[in-house]
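G., before I forget:
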Amino acid sequence: MTFKSWHLLATAVLLLTIAAFWWIFQEGKIDPMLGSVPFVFWTSFAVTLLIVVATFIGSKIFPHQEDSKS
Amino acid sequence: MIGWLIFFFTLFLASLGYASYRSYSKNRSSDDFMLAGSNIGAILGFLTFSAALFSAFTFMGMPDFFRVHGVGAWIFLGLSDALMVFFLLWFGYKLRKRATEVGYKGVAGFVQGCFQTQWAGYLLFLSSFLFLIPYVAIQIRGISIFLDAAFPDLIPGWGWASLLVVLMLVYSEIGGLKAIMYSDAIQGLIMLVVIWIIGYTCLQMAGGLEAGIAKVTESNAGLLSLPGPKGLFSSPFLIASAIAIVMIPVSQPQFTTRLVVMKDLKSVHKMAYAVGFFAILVILPTAFIGLYGAVKYPDSTTAEFLSAALLFDQASPVAALAVVGLFAACLSTTNAQIFALGTELRSLLTGSDKKVMRITQVAIFVFSIIVLVFSTYMSDELVLLARVSFAGTSMIAPVVLGAVMFKHPPKSLLFLSAFALVYFVFSLAELVPAGFAGLPTDAAMYLILIPATVILMLIHHFSSKSSHEA
């Protein structure tokens, strides 16, 4: 279960990154704005936040453990 | 302001002195000195990693990047840092596992042990030396420009640079890596507080977020979208930057070593997401400062804009705190990198502990002098120079990744990285074509380097599997 969750999470982060660079971050696009914040800024901020939250989740479900340090 | 400056500097120097005193131990081994006893917890680990990562170039370069090139600067650093911390979850585990198996004194010694050849170690050291020296010099250059512009009649630029290097040498030679880590913690906290105070003030002076963006829309709408008014933030540039930044913990030894010397894997993982949140908190106010610059100082030079936004437009205590914060930011990144060069050299040396330690301490002094001299000959493009350094060191990433992933890593990775490194250096010297098909050198290199690394690793994986089966 943990391995599966970790692989799912890693795949989701990879797909989100690819989607962001290939489809979301388009040149010359300002709209739709969020309040007064231009499109590229709020979308890239949201993607960043999602990935950092994914890192937090990943730290909880990471499947491997460390042997006691020699 | 001078009164406030003396007050905050005294406080800062006193805390550095205390950190050195706490870290000093008379009967320490070279491992205690260079690797801080390998027992660093999550909080200290997160602060030292963040402080080494966010430096003068974040504090000064990023506001200028937002001001000149626009909102894409968030993707350039914020998003790339988030990807890096996610990657740390896996890389931290693999690195620590291999380090336990083969031993760790530094990345150069580590890959030398994994590849069973001295050339691997030499290659790592060469890469670190070639690209960390300019990176450290960037920091010193940055702070010298700023302080020289802020206090033109006090002491010359080289005087500030020398003061920084002397200070760094004194407390790192007294307290070793542990003193550096404590000073990083102090610096990280100062930086976060200072950058938010300045960011908030700048946002107010720009008339608030909505009014500021409305003014920028009228004057230079290109700042609000990709690729920015000067066309810098193209997709190849942003993707190549993201790869270079994700590879920082792999290819920059000051970060790799910090992952190894942490207490356990749990601490590494806590540190990873803490650095991610810290990155968001530190980079966001630089966007506000950049917005203020785009509104009020669109045509000023970097030094004029920074000295105005960070000093002259601020209240005296804030301006004084900014000077100390910048000085501390610069100091912590600089000492992390120079000390890392010492660690790398030490990991390649053999002989008695005392002799190795003495050579390392002398080498740290020599590296500092080289950096000091180099910093006087650099250009002022701080962020772009930092990026060249990230990209340059990332050419060596296949070697470190091979070392952590395989018990007997393929030597072909050494040839691949050596070729990439030489080509990258030659392209900087304009001896070979820089990039192809309209791509910048690093993006073009990754286009070859990544598939080649994957293919070599797959061939090695399947060939070693079939030889075991036979």
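The mean pLDDT of chain B is 86. The longest helix of chain B spans residues 157-205.

More on Monday.
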